[in-house]
Amino acid sequence: MNTRDFRTFGHQFVDWMADYLDAVERLPVKTRVKPGEIASQLPAEPPRMPEPMDRIFRDFETIVLPGMTHWQHPSFFGYFPANSSRPSVLAEMLTATLAAQCMNWETSPAATELESRMLEWLRQVIGLPPEFVGSIHDTASTATLCAILTARERVTDFAVNESGMSAAGVFTTYCSAEAHSSIEKGIKIAGLGRMNLRKIEVDESLAMVPGALDRSIAADVEAGHTPVCVVACIGTTGTSGIDPLQPIADVCRRHGVWLHVDAAWAGSALILPEYRWMIDGIDGVDSFVFNPHKWLFTNFDCSAYFVRDVDALLRTFHIAPEYLKTWADDAAINYRDWGIPLGRRFRALKLWFVVRSYGVEGLQQMLRFHISLAQQLAGEIEAATDFELLVAPKLALMCFRYRPPGLDDQKELDALNERLCMTLNDSGELFLTHTRINGNYAIRFQVGQTGTQERHVKQAWQRIIETARGMERGAGITPAD
Ligand code: PLP
After folding, report:
1. Could you tell me the pTM of the whole model?
2. How distant is the alpha carbon of residue 311 from its chain centre?
3. I want to staple 448 with a disulfide (CB 3.0 to 4.6 A). Which of 25, 81, 277, 366 is the partner?
């Protein structure tokens, strides 16, 4: 493609992008394509000859777009948000254009130094103590894996990196029964063994019970095992449970165990001083991750990982083959040594654009707005006699179920609510996901999209009650076939 065509299509695409973001709410949130439907429209073999960009773009619109779930739709209330913003998208365009590989300081000094400054900004705005130093990773899963690996190395005096796991004995790890699956995955990858991950019981607020953690670690020590790492969660995926850091940190300190905090979603809310209580006990924490790519208007991927002991991190990941050595190695940061991949995208640029465009106060306003919308909706659910608010929003996530008077059978309630959730999603008007609480099906509702306004939440609630009550009356609403 020559410069003239690049310019022409670039302008055309930006127009398309602006129109898309303005009009996305008129599209169905969730696609209704069937498995294989998109693949069947794609040629089995690559084109032998060049194809014109307008044809490629036409296929993007006609084949790809109908198969997309629109995460930036203001009525996307499922999972956790992966929200974005116009400044972030513009920065991503520049990142893509520079296409720099930011593994070493020398490969792009500005990328390294901007990343250091952005992580320092984030550290300040979320209230982590100054000893914490951060870097950007693709996901919280990767950051948590880094924490587990560093904990493993610290507890073995960096011996597993050298000699493998053979003579190491049993390493035990801990998280609550509500923790995210990325922890179990990290334990498996780190070679510590899924069966050595203890799922600690939770209390009625679905937060880890520190006493149970203490007993579990003590039993492992008694059995001759080596406790390595505890992962506490601030804002669990199912129900936004908040593990109590202070008593958990006390337990970890007493047993000399690494404490990692997974605040993938809820960490963004720490920019609000009124939510800083969630990290009471941070002084006993070794590492901490949160995702600006979830609830801080920064395009996926951008996960901020902070550690207290950078030396332990570097001793775990540093590697220096001849071809990567540079003259600046003693004077500057090489982020390739701060995590798993060698190659790194220039992710700090979008953070810089977002934080400067909104300002900290603008970001705070947005999050407070989401939280207030969630609380408003929770009030409506609570007031409805045929709905049950199962988890009130501590932040902007709640869980509920439809429970028509007289229906008490848990299995029937599960089936009814599963059908309700599917029917709502098939309507294309909103998108919700579910979890299980004490084994029972619960519908999750989170508010966190950049474009979500009060009317979207109100319309969603209206649609939920109409659909649910229609189902009860047997008005023929069934999941689309
Ligand atoms: N931790 C929690 C609490 C999450 O909710 C999620 C994803 O939703 C993750 C970790 C994984 O995040 P990522 O996709 O960045 O690995």
Report:
1. 0.94
2. 27
3. 81
